[in-house]
Amino acid sequence: MTGPGYAVPVFLYHSVSEDPPSWIAPFTVSPRTFAEQLDRIAEAGLTVVPLRRLVAAIRGGPTLPPRSAVLTFDDGFADFYWTVTPLLTDRELPATLYVTTGAVHAPGGAARGSLLPPAPMLNWRQITTLDACGIEIGGHTRTHPQLDTLPGRQLCDEVGGCKQELEELLSHPVEAFAYPHGYSSPSVRRKVQRAGWSSAASVGYAFSSPADQALRISRLMVRADTPAEQFRAWTEGSGAPVAPYPERLRTRGWRAYRRVRAGIGRPVGGPPTD
């Protein structure tokens, strides 16, 4: 089955800024572009729903509105607090923010360490404020590694430790997780499930759907170079495949190559895949 009533665009954003650091600039949209995209979502007649409603539908719960969309943001850039939140609040739109806990700044202090290069990031006080204002806070590991290249103990620390840190801070369960770079594997997804996460977002460059996998939710990444025509097509339910679909052979090959490189101490990155 295809079509706008079945395809659920889960939009993936990173930074929303006029002047981002060079390393994140390709994955950044300007505040003006972001506002225009939110307006386009409304004009297309999409209903932005909380991520948990999509997860519930995937797990056999209540059905979604006929034309639904979800907004998600990765990493935890400071501009989410100062720029994104006012735009969402003005439009009464829900969103999920996946936080890399090692990149979070203590108020007036520095981050404790992550693999992300330097950038203005949220502090813990801002995260608690966002949580209190209704933004869903999710986990994005401690240090933002490629999870499918890690040994078991380190993988468990990244997945479970992140959850523990966020729940101790917020004093309530935190259920949504996102894979750094979009990288996962069957064994990684099992570890995520065992750690207690009820959902996990990938990339996939595809629409999600009520038939998607709760631990491998497909998303559409919005980049600096995403054409307006492409974004419009997404809001109309076209321009991308609909999940679920089998893992691509090239994804398995790329994972094997990255594991070998990580094993010899020469890791490589690359564009997110599935």
Give a written overview of the molecule:
Residues 67-274 form the NodB homology domain. This is Polysaccharide deacetylase family protein. This protein is of the alpha/beta class and 274 residues long. The protein has a single domain, classed as Glycoside hydrolase/deacetylase (TIM Barrel, Alpha-Beta Barrel), CATH 3.20.20.370. 34% of the residues lie in helices and 15% in strands. The chain is built from eight helices and ten strands. The protein has helices spanning 31-43, 51-58, 79-91, 124-132, 152-170, 186-194, 228-235, 249-263, and strands at 10-13, 15-16, 28-29, 47-48, 68-75, 96-99, 136-139, 176-178, 199-204, 217-221. Strands 1, 4, 5, 6, 7, 8, 9 and 10 form an eight-stranded parallel beta sheet that branches. Strands 2-3 form a two-stranded parallel sheet. The radius of gyration is 17 Å and the shape is globular.
Précis, in short:
By secondary structure, the chain is an alpha/beta fold. The protein is 34% helix and 15% strand. The protein contains eight helices and ten strands.
